[in-house]
Specification:
heterodimer, A: mainly alpha, B: alpha/beta, Rossmann fold, seven-stranded mixed beta sheet, four-stranded antiparallel beta sheet, 11 strands, 38% helix, binds adenosine-5'-triphosphate, binds magnesium ion
């Protein structure tokens, strides 16, 4: 019996540790300590913009094309090709853009943070920071979180645009069963600004969790280069699970009770 | 080891016998165990005996009582006249799991002197340094820096206290994401309001001192181990700290550079003063720069005091270690 309980107990312990760690980092951001290292936060923000915007927008573009194609053929099948915009609008904004964003964040930014902080940990760089009288958790983790909050909403909006554009290309230019005006009318009828806000909230929740999990696994890496590798893998697993949980919860909360669709009553 | 090895030492038992006996009859074991149990003074004479000296190297019994294990640890401290201790270790114990690294360490590092901590590889010298700056906490005991207890400090006090320190880690610990110049400038940028020009002046001077004036723009991963050491050395000194900890500044350097580095340490110390703690394996360096020496072994101080006293010490372990001989209390274990 004890043996059976060992694994879940270890998970709960890890979860508790991660929660404690996140609490500390969030405290340093909201408590304003992080602004002592605002320069470092800006530097991290710059790195995020330069290294991640394109690849995130690219992935979302591909997803947008897919949503457009699926939507166009599905609505043609049901005899309502003018409604291709409904499928595209929901598919893009509500579900797949946040997921694609989450995946790319986990794969690029999350693992990047684990690898970077982990290698700093094992080569005593974090100790060196501490010894210089610098709070390493603030300097390394809180600044990254702040940077991601400063930058990622804009990156996200940019990626949503690229997704919309891709769907438009697929439905109107490639398959061409609706006119540009007809598509746009339906497309915009089936979403409104609060939807964009909800979608962004979903994405930012994902980003926050991913950055924090990445910081936790990197900052606490042990056991040399192998340990950093293991930590990277673990963080990726946890992040992918978290992305789906947040996606599901977000859809339930924001659209589960009220689909906000202008159909019928 | 074959039977014949024991023939000369007729009364020396086989090594596995010793272990068995030592396990179930602690009182008898010391009599049977010829070499290490004798009083310190007799060891130099017995170590000429082939058989017994081999036994002392190859099959040192694993289960030992504290008395045997610490028989050379007189803990004698030849005090330095008229100088207070900058750093004190009071009966510090530290274990990593079952590996007991520090086992009742008592050590005082005098103010305004260059002190050296010597000791065999893996005895906990680096661990000792990490305790001084609060990177590790003792399981038991206390560490005082200028009279203040490090383990009892709250975070903010600890960060303030650490600004007194300049530390060179064993592997340099340069920031991999910054080039050499930025690495050395980092403490200045974080802790002072100096302008970039002033910073550039200080940093370039420090880098030239260690012979890296030309390597400004290089990233740490493009440097050799010795270059990284020297850069870490420059970074540790850039804020003119009160207490300087160098973990093997000379390992990985060629003999000439080692000698030059020793000169540099002495020069900078003369200029700035403060307590310098240097860990080294190089006895020649110790002879050159050390004013105070502490010998660490098995988590305790064997002997400590002014360099001259230690080099003249009668303690067999200290003598063996400072002359680098293979014969004596210390084996490969
Ligand atoms: N973080 C750690 N976790 C577990 N064990 C450790 C840790 N740091 C050090 N040790 C153990 O403590 C002991 C002493 O290590 P330490 O690095 O202090 O040796 P050292 O005296 O500096 O040796 P060297 O001269 O080779 O550098 C070793 O047995 C090592 O395995
Ligand atoms: Mg060491």
């Amino acid at each position: 019996m004890n043996g059976l309980l060992a694994a879940p107990r270890a998970w709960i312990e890890t979860f508790g540790e991660i929660a404690g760690f996140c609490g500390q980092v969030l405290g340093q951001v909201f408590g304003g300590r992080v602004f002592r290292f605002f320069g470092e936060a800006l530097r991290q923000a710059g790195i995020l913009i330069l290294s991640s915007t394109l690849v995130i927008c690219g992935l979302v573009f591909i997803i947008g094309l897919q949503c457009g194609i699926e939507g166009a053929y599905f609505t043609r099948g049901t005899g309502t090709p003018t409604y291709a915009g409904v499928f595209a609008a929901w598919c893009d904004l509500r579900e797949l853009v946040p997921y694609a964003f989450g995946y790319m964040m986990a794969a690029k930014v999350g693992t990047g943070i684990v690898a970077e902080l982990g290698s700093m940990r094992i080569s005593d760089e974090i100790d060196a920071l501490e010894v210089m009288g610098i709070n390493s958790m603030t300097f390394l983790c809180a600044t990254r979180l702040l940077a991601s909050w400063m930058v990622l909403p804009f990156v996200y909006i940019a990626s949503v645009r690229s997704g919309f554009f891709a769907s438009y290309l697929a439905v109107v230019v490639q398959i061409h069963e609706v006119s540009a005006g007809g598509y746009s009318l339906i497309f915009w009828m089936f979403q409104n600004p609060p939807d964009l806000l909800f979608s962004a909230i979903k994405a930012m929740a994902m980003a926050t969790v991913i950055v924090l999990v990445g910081c936790y696994y990197g900052y606490n890496a042990r056991g040399g280069p192998v340990g950093v590798g293991t930590a990277t893998a673990k963080s990726m697993v946890l992040n992918i699970v978290a992305v789906h949980l947040i996606g599901m919860l977000g859809t339930q909360i924001f659209w589960g009770a009220n689909p906000r669709a202008p159909i019928g009553g | 080891m074959s039977e014949s090895d024991f023939e000369k030492g007729a009364d020396a038992p086989r090594d596995d016998d010793v272990e068995l006996l030592a396990q179930d009859a602690d009182t008898e074991a010391p009599e049977l165990e010829a070499p290490p149990a004798g009083p310190p003074a007799t060891v130099p004479s017995t170590s000429t005996d082939v058989a017994s000296s081999r036994i002392s190297v190859v099959s040192e019994p694993v289960a030992r009582t504290d008395d045997e294990e610490f028989q050379w640890h007189t803990g004698t401290k030849h005090s330095v006249e008229g100088v207070e201790d900058a750093i004190e270790f009071l009966d510090v114990h530290k274990a990593f799991g079952r590996n007991r690294v520090l086992r009742g360490l008592n050590l005082g590092i005098p103010e305004n002197r260059i002190s050296m901590i010597l000791g065999p590889s893996g005895t906990g010298k680096s661990v000792c340094i990490k305790h001084m700056v609060g990177l590790l906490y003792p399981d038991q005991g206390d560490i005082l820096v200028h009279g203040e207890s490090v383990p009892n400090m709250v975070d903010d006090e600890l960060f303030d206290m650490r600004r007194k320190f300049g530390v060179l880690f064993q592997d340099g610990a340069l920031f991999g994401s910054m080039n050499l110049y930025d690495n050395v400038a980092f403490p200045l940028r974080q802790h002072t309001d100096r302008g970039e020009e002033e910073i550039a002046e200080i940093v370039n001077a420090r880098l030239r001192e260690v012979g890296l004036g030309e390597a400004n723009e290089m990233m740490p991963n493009e440097l050799s181990g010795g270059m990284r050491k020297r850069a870490g050395f420059a970074r540790a000194l850039v804020l003119d700290p009160d207490i300087v900890l160098f973990d093997e500044p000379d390992s990985g350097l060629d003999p000439v550079r080692t000698a030059l580095l020793c000169e540099l340490i002495k020069e900078i110390h003369e200029e700035n003063g403060g307590a310098y703690v240097v860990i080294t394996h190089d006895i020649a360096s110790a002879r050159r720069v050390a004013e105070f020496i502490a010998v660490l072994w098995r988590g305790r101080i064997v002997e400590s005091g002014p360099a001259a006293d230690l080099f003249a010490s009668e303690n067999p372990f200290v003598r063996q270690f400072l002359s680098g001989e293979s014969q004596g209390p210390l084996g490969m274990e």
